[in-house]
């Protein structure tokens, strides 16, 4: 997708610079973690004398990366972590043998880093997606800043909800996205106009497309979701789809046949307008009992985000299977909850064509219904998405750091003490629930930043955690023998299983690297001593969980110093692998970390 750009003002140039810096930071952090640091080709505290003049300032670390044929990269960072995560404050500078230093833009940097990697025929697609992500970030920044400057009257409906709904505000204020992904905002397969109409980053609010459908064609699974659909459109005989999906639907031969037979009629947009959440295709309204997770044949970061037919089956099946666990968690881990997906719906046009043709329509119209948090819960706990906390705001300030500073003032504590209490409240709930599910029940959750909600007490300290999105939830066969799943289709059953090692890697990565690792990076505020104390606190919580859970081997080895697994988003995207097939990089264990002992 190419976005047309008008002539740039000084303000636009500044915003474009912000987009470029963040894109470079994402790409280099991925490259450092997945490639350069494991191979000993990077130095997080470079002390060489041969430096470009603009990088000789004091008070910042110089990050050096050795490349093929004697080339070197150098740039400044004001924050680094034991996990190799950096915040850069300069452009990357390149030096080749016999040449001087010169700064690089994102496109030059991307080509340089990809050049020696395997599969050069794949570089073009990734380079295009990196550029796509950059251009979309630029667009979001311009519109986000413009929206923030509009008079309140022009944004009355959105603002009235945002002022009272912390969840909505956090869903729609995530401009930067996944900090360790090479293409965090890439969206292939959608026009610039549709991008702005339906993206959370610009505060979108839009109605659905609706179809009058013969009731015999509609299929419901699990609980009956028709009350939610009726609340959306005010009628009982209509069925919706996402605006990004409607052109694909209307071009489908089975849909056209159904229209010719009078079984289906497109009525256009109408009904209650919905807010896109941080996952883009999942929509929200504070008055609805459910989030609605739609299919969109758009590649967002790694994957085309359609609801595969077996995912409709598996989400509802998992909700049924996990209902006893949800009740049990309320007793044994009362601050930790799973958000069930009790219903799904779609259209079945198999009578009009082949099974393969019908599955395409089934996936296009597939909707999963996720239980919403009720108004009293939202009011009491002021929930926010974790990804909206462990990130930078539009002014480059850490969001969670600002929250902790408010807690420190309220509780009359110094910042470090408040940060330790804040993390303890969050990590105790998160680790307690996730590890109980894995080691006691064989349930593999994906508590990455976008899937995790935090709730807060009256002091602003985390006291509650919700995990959402059962698409990534899996089962360990030893706890869930095939006989318990024999009522499911074979493809659905296969999609639900992870082997024990695969289960541990996914849980450890999502919980300790993607989630708590990013939390500590922000909470530590660049202070290495505080970073050590925060990781030591996580180590103490893990030791406590190890004893409570009868010393599971994976957890025992981690507490003894085994490396942390980190999912390879960069290489997964480069090699065009499914997310389920992603590899893992071994990161140094930070639980017993002493900075003086580490020299990458």
UniProtKB/TrEMBL annotation:
Biological process according to GO: siderophore biosynthetic process
Gene Ontology MF terms: acid-amino acid ligase activity
Domain Aerobactin siderophore biosynthesis IucA/IucC N-terminal, chain residue ranges per copy: 167-390
A Pfam family it matches: FhuF
Superkingdom of source: Bacteria
InterPro entries: Aerobactin_biosyn_IucA/IucC_N, IucA/IucC-like_C, LucA/IucC-like, PvsD/AcsD-like_thumb_beta, PvsD/AcsD-like_thumb_helix
Residue ranges occupied by any Aerobactin siderophore biosynthesis IucA/IucC-like C-terminal domain in the UniProt entry: 421-581
PANTHER family noted in UniProt: L-2,3-DIAMINOPROPANOATE--CITRATE LIGASE
Protein family membership: Belongs to the IucA/IucC family.
Name of the protein described by the UniProt record: Iron transporter
Native source species: Pseudomonas taeanensis MS-3
């Amino acid at each position: 997708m190419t976005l047309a750009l008008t002539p740039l003002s000084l303000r636009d140039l500044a915003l474009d610079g912000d987009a470029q810096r963040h894109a470079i930071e994402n790409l280099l952090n991925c490259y450092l973690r997945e490639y350069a640091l494991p191979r000993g080709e990077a130095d997080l505290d470079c002390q060489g004398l041969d430096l470009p003049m603009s990088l000789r300032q004091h008070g910042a670390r110089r990050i050096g990366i050795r490349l093929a044929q004697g080339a070197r990269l150098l740039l400044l960072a004001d924050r680094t972590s034991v996990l190799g995560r950096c915040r850069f404050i300069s452009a990357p500078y390149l030096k080749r043998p016999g040449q001087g230093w010169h700064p690089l833009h994102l496109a030059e940097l991307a080509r340089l880093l990809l050049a020696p990697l395997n599969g050069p025929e794949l570089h073009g697609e990734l380079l295009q997606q990196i550029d796509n992500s950059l251009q979309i970030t630029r667009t979001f920044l311009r519109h986000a800043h413009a929206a923030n400057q509009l008079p309140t009257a022009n944004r009355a409906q959105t603002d009235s909800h945002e002022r009272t709904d912390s969840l909505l505000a956090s869903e729609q204020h995530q401009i930067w996205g996944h900090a360790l992904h090479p293409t965090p905002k890439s969206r292939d397969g959608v026009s610039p106009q549709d991008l702005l109409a339906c993206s959370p980053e610009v505060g979108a609010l839009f109605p659905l497309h609706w179809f009058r459908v013969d009731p015999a064609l509609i299929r419901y699974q699990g609980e009956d979701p028709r009350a939610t659909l009726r609340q959306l459109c005010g009628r009982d005989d209509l069925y919706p789809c996402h605006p990004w999906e409607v052109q694909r639907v209307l071009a489908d031969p089975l849909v056209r046949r159904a229209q010719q037979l009078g079984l289906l009629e497109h009525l256009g947009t109408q009904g209650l307008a919905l807010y896109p959440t941080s996952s883009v295709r999942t929509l929200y309204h504070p008055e609805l009992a459910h989030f609605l997770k739609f299919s969109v044949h758009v590649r967002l970061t790694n994957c085309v985000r359609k609801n595969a037919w077996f995912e409709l089956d598996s989400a509802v099946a998992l909700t049924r299977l996990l209902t006893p666990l949800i009740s049990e968690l309320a007793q044994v881990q009362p601050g930790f909850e799973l958000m069930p997906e009790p219903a799904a719906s779609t259209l079945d046009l198999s009578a009009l064509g082949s099974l393969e043709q019908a599955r395409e329509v089934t996936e296009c119209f597939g909707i999963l219904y996720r239980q919403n948090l009720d108004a009293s819960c939202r009011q009491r706990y002021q929930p926010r998405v974790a990804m909206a906390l462990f990130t930078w705001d539009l002014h480059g300030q850490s969001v969670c750091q600002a929250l902790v500073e408010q807690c420190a003032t309220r509780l009359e504590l110094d910042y470090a003490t408040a940060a330790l209490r804040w993390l303890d409240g969050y990590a105790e709930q998160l680790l307690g629930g996730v590890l109980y599910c894995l080691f006691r029940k064989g349930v593999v959750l994906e508590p990455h930043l976008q899937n995790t909600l935090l709730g807060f007490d009256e002091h602003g300290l985390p006291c509650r955690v919700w995990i959402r999105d059962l698409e990534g939830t899996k089962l360990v066969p030893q706890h869930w023998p095939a006989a318990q799943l024999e009522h499911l289709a074979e493809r659905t059953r296969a999609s639900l299983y992870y082997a024990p090692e695969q289960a541990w890697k996914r849980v450890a990565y999502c919980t300790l690297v993607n989630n708590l690792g990013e939390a500590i990076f922000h909470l530590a505020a660049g202070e290495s001593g505080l970073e050590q104390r925060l990781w030591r606190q996580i180590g103490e919580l893990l030791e406590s969980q190890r004893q409570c859970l009868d010393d599971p081997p994976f957890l025992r080895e981690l507490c003894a110093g085994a490396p942390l697994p980190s999912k390879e988003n960069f290489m997964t995207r480069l090699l065009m692998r499914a997310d389920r097939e992603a590899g893992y990089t071994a990161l140094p264990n930070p639980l017993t970390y002493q900075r003086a002992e580490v020299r990458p």
